[in-house]
Design a protein that fits this description.
alpha+beta, 8-stranded mixed sheet, 4 helices, 29% strand
């Protein structure tokens, strides 16, 4: 049986089973603590019956800097962002990532966010398919977003910026079709 709960400081010492994966971004301890202190309800861990941490999701709610409000439709309002989601290898395919993502979406709904967004490696087809089944769509391709390529085919890898409207976005203002064909550079994330 898998249970979900908010991450606690001592949990950071027990996440190795989740972080030992080439598709998982690893951060400094300070980065994890920052999320835990600023958005505690959006940093959720999954643990098995033995209380081992087998997955986690880190999220935040944010909006673009106020200066960008003058850029019209390029401004991103209050929204939820999936910063990191990972599940230990031996627990993949059991719905843990879906449960963690749903828990984060619910928490962002409670924060009155317009939509969810996340960045995923273009080669991570399992994650992309899971997100699509959950209602996410590709908003745009960020060319050379990641400075490495775990497949070894290149020095860098593209990311898909995927989004899902939440209940506040009844008109679906912050999603688009065929986003895979809308390419931008990482420098243009706030401007495209």
């Amino acid at each position: 049986m898998v249970s979900l709960r908010e991450c606690q400081p001592q949990d950071l010492l027990n996440m190795n089973m989740c972080n030992l994966d080439p598709l998982t971004e690893n951060y400094s301890q300070g980065f994890y603590y920052h999320y835990m202190s600023k958005w505690p309800s959006l940093f959720i861990v999954a643990e098995n019956q033995d209380k081992d941490i087998i997955g986690y999701v880190m999220g935040k709610v944010e909006e673009d800097p106020a200066l960008l409000k003058f850029m019209g439709d390029k401004y991103l309002p209050w929204h939820g962002h999936v910063t990191a989601l990972t599940v230990a290898n031996q627990y993949r395919g059991q719905g843990v990532a879906r449960r963690l993502t749903t828990a984060l979406e619910d928490a962002c709904e409670a924060e009155n966010a317009w939509f969810m967004d996340l960045f995923v490696r273009a080669s991570n087809l399992k994650a992309i398919n899971m997100y699509k089944k959950m209602g996410y769509s590709v908003y745009r391709r960020v060319v050379a977003y990641y400075s490495d390529d775990p497949t070894g085919k290149s020095d860098c890898e593209d990311a898909f910026d995927m989004r899902k409207s939440l209940s506040r976005d009844k008109e679906k203002l912050y999603v688009r079709e065929n986003g895979e064909n809308h390419c931008i550079s990482p420098d243009d994330i706030y401007h495209a």
